[in-house]
Structure formats: C-alpha cells, structure tokens
Hints:
two-stranded antiparallel sheet
Amino acid sequence: xSDFDRITFVVVMLLFFYWILAKTEIGxxxxxxxxxxxxxxxxxxxxxxxFLIRWVIAKFSFKKIYFYALLISVLAxxxxxxVYKISSTGIEFLSQPIFGIDFWGN
Length: 106
C-alpha cells in the first residue's frame, strides 16, 4: 500500500464526516460547506470507483484497507444522495429518488 492510498483513505474518512456534518442544521450554515460542496460531490462519486479498482487489483483481499475504504466511500455517497437532513429528532430521507434510483424504498 502506497502513501497515496493511505492519504486517500484519510480523505475518504473526512469526506464521510463532511457529508454527515453538511446534512446537519449546523453544517448547512457554515461557510465551509458553501465553498466546498463541489469537491465533496466529486469525491463522493470518484472515491468508490478508485477503491473498487484498487480492491480488485489487491485480489479482493480483506486484509487491505481498500475494501473498508470502499465501504466508507459508498456510505458517504448514500448519505450525499439519500439523506435530506440530520437533526436531533432523527434522520429525514429524501422523498424523491436520485438519478431514478429509489435507494430507500419509499
């Protein structure tokens, strides 16, 4: 595993927390979200593809970090596309499907 892979794993972890924070009431009003949303969208789309390719190259080994990074990046993608808001009362999902795919079965 290269240093680049370790860095991208940390970036995926930060991306996951970024989308969780962006869906909360506090995170939406933070200027940081307004300035970086396009980077978050690109990361949520590209990181699952990158880690899936790396996991295939690693011959589907669960001992490598690629599988776990793939899981976290898919979770970040699902939070980005399917969660409307996270508040103290619970998680509110989107009522309309994204890209024609109803992730949550509504």
